[in-house]
Each structure stands twice: as C-alpha cells, then as structure tokens.
Amino acid sequence: MKLLSHAEFIAAAGRAADLLPEGPAEIAFAGRSNVGKSSAINALLGRRRLARISKTPGRTQTINFYALGEQARLVDLPGYGYARVARSLRSQWETLVAAYLRSRSTLAGVVVIMDARHPLTPLDLQLIEWLGDTRLLVLLSKADKLSRTEQAATLARVSAALGAPVRLFSSVTRQGVDESRVLLEQWLETGRAEIKGPR
C-alpha cells in the first residue's frame, strides 16, 4: 500500500485542453454529486483534507490530478447528476469527463462510488455501461448508515447486477478501506507493467 500513501495534488483541468499529458498509470474516481467521493478518496489515501469535502453537490467542477509519487496518479472526476448548477456547466463537465475517459490509454481502472442507501441509479448504470470493459471497482459509500442486514442485502443486489467487484465502504468506520486499497495497488502495479510493455 505504498503508492496510495504518497499523494499530492498536482493539477486541475477545467477543459479538455488542460488535461495533463499521459504519463504514469492512473486510477479515476467517479460518482454522483454528494455521494461521498471526496471522503472516500481521503480515506483511501489516509489523509483528512487532500480532496475537498463539501455538503454542496457539484463542488468538484474540475478534473483534479494527484501524484502518487512519480509512479502513478489518482484522478478525481467531477460528480454527475443532481448538482445545483446551470445546465450549460453540467454539459461542460460531461464533455470534459468524456474527453478524459476516452483519451487515457494509461487508465488502470475506474472506481465508481454509489451511496449504499441509493445504489444503481440510472446515471450510475449509464456510466458503467459507457465504461465498457474498463477495469472497475464499485464502492457502496456511507455503508455505516445501514444495518448489517441492509448492508448484506444491498451488497448482494448490487453484486448480482454488476460484473465487477463491489465493496461496502465507510469513510467514518473505515469499513472496506484496507481491502479496497489492496485492490487499487494491484491495479496500479498492473497498469505500470502494461505501460512499460509493448503498446
């Protein structure tokens, strides 16, 4: 878990032209507005305030890049859906995110964060379908707000609906943090090896 322990903010891109050039392997984080994405990122990185947390949906309006040393990057994508902002700005965000996801040959995987109380929204499913065969991990955030019975039922339902790893996750109790970090470290190691190999 060494890579995720050395995160540092390096750039924010508000337009496709501002995206960092491809370099090391990257893992991107996506999720609906106000789903707990920034809290999840901070928990996985072992930091309190690296990714900014807000109760206002749509606060992340740029693609934010974090260096994990010189060997990897973490990428925080703008939240989708329900943000209280102008439709034109939401459209701009969607164009930006699409430009990123379609262009990154160094993308090692995408972490999709869903609220454990309201998973599998139409927008969640639309994103997952659009990602196709991209390596995927689904984190069911705010799992601490569910009972154990509800957690088990939700995990079973989401796992049955998706052909991807699904984890219950809480930045408050740290449920799912360590096992998710192990998987993401494996992705980054695989991504680094793929980049070094024949392209």
Provide key terms for this protein:
199 residues; alpha/beta; Rossmann fold; seven-stranded mixed β-sheet; 7 strands
Give an overview in words:
It is built from five helices and seven strands; from the N terminus they run ββαββαβαβαβα. It is of the alpha/beta class. The protein has one domain (3-141, 155-178): P-loop containing nucleotide triphosphate hydrolases (Rossmann fold, 3-Layer(aba) Sandwich). It has a seven-stranded mixed beta sheet, sandwiched between helices. Strand 3 (63-68) and strand 4 form a beta hairpin. It is globular. The model is unreliable at 53-58 (pLDDT under 50).
Topology:
Elements: E1 7-13, E2 25-31, H1 37-45, E3 63-68, E4 72-76, H2 87-103, E5 107-115, H3 122-131, E6 136-141, H4 148-161, E7 166-168, H5 177-196
Parallel strand pairs: 2-4, 2-5, 5-6, 6-7
Antiparallel strand pairs: 1-3, 3-4
Helix pairs in contact: 1-5
Tally of separate domains: 1
Find the CATH topology: Rossmann fold
Taken from the alpha-carbon principal axes, the silhouette is globular
Nearest-integer average pLDDT: 87
Give a count of the beta strands, DSSP E runs of length 2 or more: 7
Low-pLDDT stretches: 53-58
Helix content: 25-40%
Strand residues, percent: 15-25%
Total helices: the number is: 5
CATH superfamily: P-loop containing nucleotide triphosphate hydrolases
At a glance:
Helices cover 35% and strands 22% of the residues. With 199 residues, it is of the alpha/beta class.
